[in-house]
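Issue 218. Parser rejects a valid record. Input:
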Amino acid sequence: MLKSNKLRIIPLGGLNEIGKNITLIECDNDIVICDCGMTFPEDEMLGVDIVIPDITYLEKNKERIKGIVLTHGHEDHIGAIPYVLKKINVPIYGTRLTLGLLENKLKEHNLKPKMHVVNFNDKVRLGKIVVEFIRQCHSIPDSAALAFHTPAGVIVHTGDFKIDFTPIMGGVNDLNRFAELGDKGVLCLLAESTNVERKGYTLSERVVGETFRTIFHEYTENRIIVATFASNMQRIQQIIEAAEKHGRKIVLSGRSMINNVKVAKDLGYLRVKDSSIIDINKMNKYDDSEICIITTGSQGEPMSALTRIAYNEHRKIQLTPNDLIILSAHPIPGNENAVSKVINKLIELDAKVIYESLGEIHVSGHACQEELKLIHSLLKPRYFIPVHGEQRHLKLHAQLAESMGMNPKNIFIMNNGEVLELDKRKAEIVDEVTSGNVLVDGLGVGDVGNIVLRDRKHLSEDGLIIVVLTLSKEDGSTIAGPDIISRGFVYVREADDLMEEAKKKVVLAIEDCQRRNIKDWSSIKNAIRDSLKKYIYQTMKRNPMILPVIMEV
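Output the parser choked on:
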């Protein structure tokens, strides 16, 4: 048990990375979880679908957890919840759209946790911690900053935000409330750092709307396909408005796009005529000039609708030179190559492609330097933790806070798993808890580790050789084989000499084992593996995975 009025802040994800956001606020014996997101796998994580945070610490302290509070409905903030709830069943608090999107996701996993809709300015008591939801502007409606009121002081988490005085949906940022909290005194601020490298202010979402109106007016005879994030409701609303103005029917492509639009429409966040949206199967009844397709895949995800369209693998949508594709998104760090490949493939199919560098078809949902300075000046925190960014973002945000007069000793650039203990007198990193990545591959959660990834990498780079032979149970002599099967190493029919010599090396290895009276399979397999490995490397300068298979009769 912690000392009375002692606070602890423990980030389990979201630091030194983009995504996988999860932060714990502890007061005495109570734990509140702020967000619980996923991230995309890195290139070397072959076959992995998503990455979620390691919650070992939460599993060990599940009886202390009072609830999960959510800033907004993006995947990097809610995407891990279905997997986490299977281990810790706790109530969830969030705004209406956030919980609407989450509920849709939980249905796929047959989960029905207790979920509580919270309005802006509401306060929820979770043990000794009172959580206040404050309106923020972001690329998705119903985004919130969270103020954690504790006996030791107030902690403010900005969530993802931008300052937008002309948002498409919802109200403007509640700067008055930030100022009030700052006047009363804020113990610690956790502020996002995504766009800290960018000077000035983030443009309003309405700028994109003007661009869409111009494009739709100019390309009246073309079929228009727009790829964007399925959760960017403000962007989708503007596409819908441009399409309806020019008498186009709207076709939705991609499961997440269809699901999210339905949820947002049912909850009253999206304004669209019932007659405007048509089923993808009815699309061919209309001319190109009458169709607008809104699809997923702006990040070049391998299985997304746009990627399948680009590679001519989509069952319903085939590109023609009369198609105009708009990529209304900025690549997430690490996805640049995937996006570039998709753009090139689309262009190869003679489609017209408009992406960010060719027009104002995307604005960020994250605050630039001047907006961050405004939040810092309003809140005037005693301590500051930059979050939601890679190392360069966190350090630059720390420098920005210092430039505004903050004592560098009160700024903490933390790592995932570190424990910051703080009160009104001091703050210090006192401990470290288990954190890291849990890899989700299909239905498997956490069963793909470093060894499996190493093997996958090995197979992808050097291929596989399988050696099959049958040994006598009585005397260990070779009855059949060895036969050698190659996958991803060489084309066997064009490498007869190599394969024959490889068989000879296997035979010699077996004979050596027999002379030394070695009969256990493990030792024989190692001998075959070592002999082949040495020969192949000397001959080919390659190092394939070698898998001996021994049968005994």
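Fixed in the parser; the record now loads. The chain has three domains: 7-200+364-445, 206-358, 463-552.
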